[in-house]
Amino acid sequence: MYNFTDMRQQCTELSNHSSRFHRQCSMEDDDGVVDDEAYSHWHLPSSLYEIASSASLESRITEVGLIIKRVMQTRAPYLIRDRKAHLQVNRQSEKKRNFQIYPMCMVGTELVNWLSQLSTEILNEMATPLTRLQVVGMWQVLLENGIINHVNNELQFVDKHIYYRWAMNEELDSFKTRDRSGNETTDLETQTNLNDLKSAIFFLSTVGPDALFRTILSKSSNERTAEELELVYDELLHVKALAHLSTMVKRELASIAFFEQHQHAGTVLFRQGDEGNCWYIILKGSVHVSVYGKGIVCTLREGDDFGKLALVNDAPRAATVTLREDKSQFLRVDKVDFNRILRDVEANTVRLKEHGQDVLVLEKIDKPYSLAVDPYCEELETSRQQFRYSVMAGLPEKIVEYLLETRIDAYEDNMTLDTFLEEFILTHSIYMPENILCNYLKNYYMQGSTVILARIDEFYILDDRGQKFAIKRRVVIFLAIWIRTIGQRFFLNPVSNSFVEELYCCVLEDSRQIPEMYSILEKMAYIRQLRENSMQILNRHSVVVLDCGVYSIKAPAPNPVLPFDTCNQIIHLPDTSSFTINIRLDKTSAEICELTKMKTHYGGTNVDLQLVEVRSSGERIIFSPTDISIPTMLSLNSRLYVAYGAEVNTLTPVVQQDGPVDSAHSQMLEYMSSVDIAQQLSIFHFQLFEATDEVELVTQVFGRDQFPSCIPSNLDLLIRRFNEVQHWSSTEILLAKSQSKRVALLKKFIKIATHAKENRDLLSFFAITLGLSNIAVSRIAYIWNRLPSKMRRQYAEFEGLLDPSRNHRAYRMLVRKMNTPIVPFVPLLLKDLTFTHEGNKTYFGGLVNFEKMEPQSD
């Protein structure tokens, strides 16, 4: 499993290697002067990453505000002018109309119109079009930070005929920032170029939703619009304390939760023994929880919640909660609303029982639903009264039955795929393997529906032939959707592959008895042809994917790597000898050991050998005998050993694992432009990402041993590539022979990262950003001080996107604003899925927890 701990461990390779040539080139400037401060701290890193932003969020917002102001003064000066406001005054029952002049003001609606048009023009294909509400959020950021002011000092920006003015005076227009040495700089150009403007607008669009989120939560429930509620709901999806709650509860919370902020540490939110009147969720900051006689018993941080127990039990507070940090922010849910939600949850839950046991649990969602009446609900509702029902939990076969009978009938080709259908198809292997699912579909097709309607309405009665046709059609349509969703991987599984032929024979036989089946036969014939076409692709010759750890030019990307593809892998023995062997990706660890034994005659016939990865950090990973796709799982600069169990502890890293001594890419970096390098990286990474499907993510998170038929080799290659780019950016700078060369390389990599972001290649973007944040690079103060201040501010913005607060909210806002397709930050994607998997049970009382499957499929 990939995580940031592994990333840090892998980065020790750079630190270990760098110390060897540290005195020669790492700390010398052009005159041979050693940076003593960097040297003194070289061996004492508190972390392998040092995110030391050279500009704060507030200073970046000030800079962006100045850019927007100057663009407005240049492109639309007519927006800033004296405004005449009508004032109505009552005096002794007589109405007199007075006028007041507001100098140099702008109108709220005109500001929204102008910035919307400017955003569309500047961002173009880089980001999705902004809604008016999102643009309001961008202006709200400038209002909260004092860049613009309301003429009457109101704190909320409103998209109405209300007056605002720029608060930045001309003498303040020389924006100031500080470099890493604390020296003040003032080099913002008078003429704003297009890239600056694009960066400014994109930055505002990513921080705007947070300001809008706070503003909406400050309103009363009845003042929140449907669009605002949807925005709040999207934010609540990423709050850790709410991860286990159902969709309906989160939507309810969006309408009744309030924002609360306290300025000073030491503020007491409530005391032990107080009446419980609200529930708190920490958005920012932390609190101390103390109990009389025990002192501080724990500290709660961002994402945690407290105060719920007193509401549930209707009891006094059991502890005192005190703010630990200044400017802490909370979500607050009042007791009345909390209790109402609890009542609504049970009222909107539909339970289907068999033999007194729950077999399917549904939740009513207040959303119109256009399909046929749900036969699992107790009442038959008219189309205007219908609600959508989501599956909360159930037996696997009942979930499939519900899906077939409520989601398939209204489905047409080229329709947007129903989310419930997609969630089931992408996650069914967790709780219902292909062989069981195919058997159920066959039985459903042959025997017909098992559902019994609680009531009968003439409109919904089907004759026997129509009922049989509907049942058979559902299975065929479901099969078509299944194949459409996961593509060629469907035909890699021999069970699902043979099911296509089996179902085709059944449909062909039925079409001779039921005339209506001819249309279904055509659909089935099309599926069968898809199978034939896919098998021609899948039956290709095997290719070498990794040649001794290097991605082969013969590798199939953007087509996926298949189980029969191979890797040329160097196998080492404890006696320091080694040999190269060609290994299929579907070979297990035990089979690789047997191949080694046959090739080298190493080990006796009754002696078990072990396959061990020795990393450059000294860590030893012993592979399970059933592990597969071993070569793609290996970390950078590691070695693969075959050894007896007693020899494992004697295996240690060798000097060759410390990494390169000379750069192999210095000429390429010198002669290729940053645009071309970023473009080539993006093309390759899009190919790798296209070859990786969602099922591999599920396999990696839930455990490879749980899905023996699925080999996530493509995902391994994608993660491996992330690590390669990350280490590459660090290593090239450290291997440079002079400080001037390092400064040039640092500029080059920041430019490459900038273009990678524009190309929507977030894998390259974050890999380079993390590589430059490696402590071996970030503590060479000399090269950072030589950067232009504008480039330092730009890199500080990159580092800000790595901010983990609010569950990596900065990154999520970045992705949300980008047009598709994008190559995502894969390690964070895996981290999210792992968090959801480990924080929620897969089964409750024998029922599949289907709500857990929603984020897994997203």
Automatic annotation (TrEMBL):
Residues 241-342 form the Cyclic nucleotide-binding domain. Residues 83-168 form the DEP domain. Residues 387-529 form the N-terminal Ras-GEF domain. Keywords: Guanine-nucleotide releasing factor. CDD domains: CAP_ED, RasGEF, REM. GO terms for cellular component: plasma membrane. GO terms for molecular function: guanyl-nucleotide exchange factor activity. SMART domains: cNMP (SM00100), DEP (SM00049), RasGEF (SM00147), RasGEFN (SM00229). GO terms for biological process: Ras protein signal transduction. Residues 673-858 form the Ras-GEF domain. It holds the Pfam family cNMP_binding. This is Rap guanine nucleotide exchange factor 6. It comes from Dracunculus medinensis (Guinea worm).
